Amino acid sequence: MNQKKIILNESEMPTQWYNVIPDIPNGLQPPLDPETKQPISPEKLAAVFPMGLLEQEMSPNRFIDIPQEVLDIYKIWRPTPLVRAENLERALGTKAKIFFKNEGVSPSGSHKTNSAVAQAYYNKKEGIKRLSTETGAGQWGSALSFATHKFGLECKVYMVRVSFDQKPYRKSMMNTYGAEIVASPSPDTAFGRQILEQYPDTAGSLGIAISEALEDAATRDDTKYALGSVLNHVILHQSIIGLEAKKQMEIAGEYPDVVVGCCGGGSNFAGIMTPFLTDKLEGKNIRFVGVEPASCPTLTRGKLAYDFGDVAKMTPLLYMYTLGHDFIPPGIHAGGLRYHGMSPIVSALVRENLIDPVSVHQLECFEAGRLFAQTEGIIPAPETCHAIRGVITEATKDLNDPKTILFNFSGHGLLDLSSYDNFFAGKLHNYDYPEEAIAEATKNLPQM
Ligand SMILES: Cc1ncc(COP(=O)(O)O)c(C=O)c1O
User: Tryptophan synthase beta chain-like PALP domain: from which residue to which, for each copy (predicted)?
Assistant: First the structure.
């Protein structure tokens, strides 16, 4: 079949999300209360999350219905196209078949909208008036700004300083959707003021921005907190990517040998690969490759341990690969991949050797992004460039054994063009991360 794009009808859009938790061999370790080191109670988490999402966080059910109100908004851009990247294949001189799931067609430009709409819906349903959140690249903040506006909620976004400065038009986008944005660390929270006093010139980090957004939610009755990755319910919402892709690959008459995605907190990669996991567990020969930045090598060089999800130690302890909660990664241009931890679900799948993690440097990623733009026409987000770099390796490593490769095109880079400009001007650098720095970063892990 020679079709370039496989497009599903709206009536073929999945009406249930897939929950991978019951299928993870040897299960997930529960989140712990940092005070007691015992599994945290839902009541404690209910201070910052609505019950609808907490139920999903711990659900033993394989499939969960997507509410009609969420489906109605998904229809603005879903189902997303599955595209054969044959121009890229030709440019690489490979017989490998490369397919990408284009999540960049969402209103805010990335997969993040899949979870933002669901999270805004469950908060609205429980009478919440306002959401606070962090954003790294600006993609999650834009997605939540769009979704909160759809449900008539207010939204406050703490945007990591380095991205705030690199991506001014992300602010414009969030303002257009009606959200309030501040650079993090900010003077708006006690924790932000403390960090600013200690490190006035800090680039910020996702861990700091999460602490600020959590403090915001914990100190206001009308506000709850929304996280754009890492947590089980986010990965549940993102499963729609893989569920659609599976149907589309079937229509194309193909099945992937390899599924590739970039890994920040793990949500877009888990979203595309988890619906294929049961096939692997039943003996199908399929590999899952998660690509992370060498400057923030959580899966390839971090420790599997209980750690906090934020710098101020406000979150429960999550069992995950981590570089230490106070790790502040270099200011690379893939802001969405600058996170010290990894989702417990992706971490457990790496622990079980069901995912192959790899790390790549940012210059080779921008090079891959430029090739993709010149061949397939779409300019990828810097995060997505990491996935493309991983795909190029898979497609060219053995030209005598061409594979069928599926990857998640997690977002477009039209609001990241200043990063491309810096790349073309030779102003970007790779960051090596010495062993001593990793030891230093992980020495403050909580004692269990
Ligand atoms: C376009 C894009 N891709 C990937 C990511 C990484 O996040 P996750 O690993 O949760 O998908 C981000 C995060 O901001 C992003 O904006």
Answer: 77-411
Diameter of the chain measured on Cα atoms? 61
Q: Which amino acid is at 448?
A: M
pLDDT averaged over the chain? 96
H-run or E-run covering 389: helix 382-396
Is residue 139 left, alpha or beta, with left meaning phi > 0 and alpha meaning psi from -120 to 50?
alpha
Tell me whether strands 63-65 and 16-18 are parallel, antiparallel or unpaired: antiparallel
Alpha-carbon span 398 to 14, nearest angstrom: 36
Ligand 1 contact via 263 beta carbon (within 6 Å):
yes
- In which element (H, E) is residue 40 found? none
The pLDDT of residue 210 is 95
Report whether pLDDT(132) > 70. yes
Q: Where are the domains of the chain?
A: 5-9+67-109+232-441
CB 304 within 8 A of CB 347: yes
Q: pLDDT at residue 332 above 80?
A: no
The predicted model scores a pTM of 0.97
Q: Which of 357, 292, 316, 341 is nearest to 441 (CA)?
A: 341
DSSP state letter for 117: H
- CATH class name, domain 5-9+67-109+232-441: alpha beta
Q: Tens of pLDDT along 52-105?
A: 999 999 999 999 999 999 999 999 999 999 999 999 999 999 999 999 999 999
- Residue 296 Cβ < 6 Å to ligand 1: no
409 alpha carbon to ligand 1 midpoint, in Å?
Answer: 10
Peptide bond preceding 60 in cis form (omega within 30 of 0): no
| Nearest alpha carbon, ligand 1 atom 1 | 411
Ligand 1 atom nearest the C-alpha of 382 is 1
| Sequence-separated (6 or more) residues with CB below 8 Å from residue 208 | 160, 184, 185, 191, 192, 195, 202, 310, 311, 312, 328
